[in-house]
Specification:
Strand content: 15-25%
InterPro entries: Cyt_B5-like_heme/steroid-bd, Cyt_B5-like_heme/steroid_sf, Cytochrome_b5
Family: Belongs to the cytochrome b5 family.
Protein name: Cytochrome b5-like heme/steroid binding domain
Number of domains: 2
Number of strands: 9
Oligomer: single chain
Pfam families: Cyt-b5 (PF00173)
Organism: Pseudocohnilembus persalinus
Shape: globular
Strand order of the largest sheet: 5-9-8-7-6
């Protein structure tokens, strides 16, 4: 792809998954899909800002000159001159909410100040930059954990807080599901055991009758 190709924000918003991950920095568009698995900071920071401008975060991490040169090898074009629209933000957020999934174990890794994720109602929120009215200790306490019960236990959170927290939502909780086959096997095992027990009882009764 030509590094001069111009992409709209809506086009960029379509590339927010592990299958196709684009980021924007300094007006340039980078396709970092093939770099996800080898990124020193894991793939999650890249997926977190997929489809978005993230140069500020790049600088904050004090990337080396070598890292900048490596980043430049992934450039595929530039972003349009127009600023992101409300339609773009809706598109990119919706795409991430629907597609990005994190296990509780992955969320648990983000439990330090500056990198704090929290699970609530089956969704994952990045609260690293949230100025919580109750103080930073509230975020520190639940960073990397599920705060659903605590959130709903505080009456002040409803209903405005539920709406306001959406801006921090980055994906869904991909909790492991129980295998139905195991339950089915247990069911048939119980039925089978009951059948065997019934046969033994019936056999015992018949045996006693024949002995009389």
């Amino acid at each position: 792809m030509s590094a001069d190709k111009v992409y709209t924000w809506l086009e960029i918003a379509e590339h927010v998954t592990e299958e196709s991950c684009w980021i924007v920095q300094e007006g340039k568009v980078f396709d970092v899909t093939e770099y996800l698995e080898t990124h020193p900071g894991t793939k999650f920071p890249l997926l977190k800002y997929a489809g978005e401008e993230c140069y500020e975060q790049f600088v904050r991490c004090n990337h080396s000159e070598e890292a900048r040169k490596l980043r430049d090898t992934f450039q595929i074009g530039v972003v349009e001159a127009n600023p992101p629209t409300a339609e773009y933000w809706l598109a990119v957020r919706h795409a991430k909410w629907e597609r990005l999934r994190f296990t509780p174990e992955q969320v648990a890794q983000h439990n330090k100040q500056g990198d704090q994720w929290v699970m609530m109602d089956g969704y994952v929120y990045d609260l690293s930059t949230l100025q919580h009215p109750g103080g930073q200790e509230v975020i520190d306490k639940f960073a990397g954990k599920d705060a659903t019960q605590k959130f709903h236990a505080v009456e002040k959170h409803l209903p405005n807080a539920i709406e306001n927290r959406q801006k921090y939502r980055i994906g869904n909780v991909n909790a492991p599901q129980q295998k139905k086959s195991g339950c089915i096997n247990c069911k048939w095992a119980i039925i089978g055991a009951a059948g065997v027990l019934g046969a033994l009882i019936a056999g015992t009764v018949i045996y006693k009758k024949t002995r009389k």
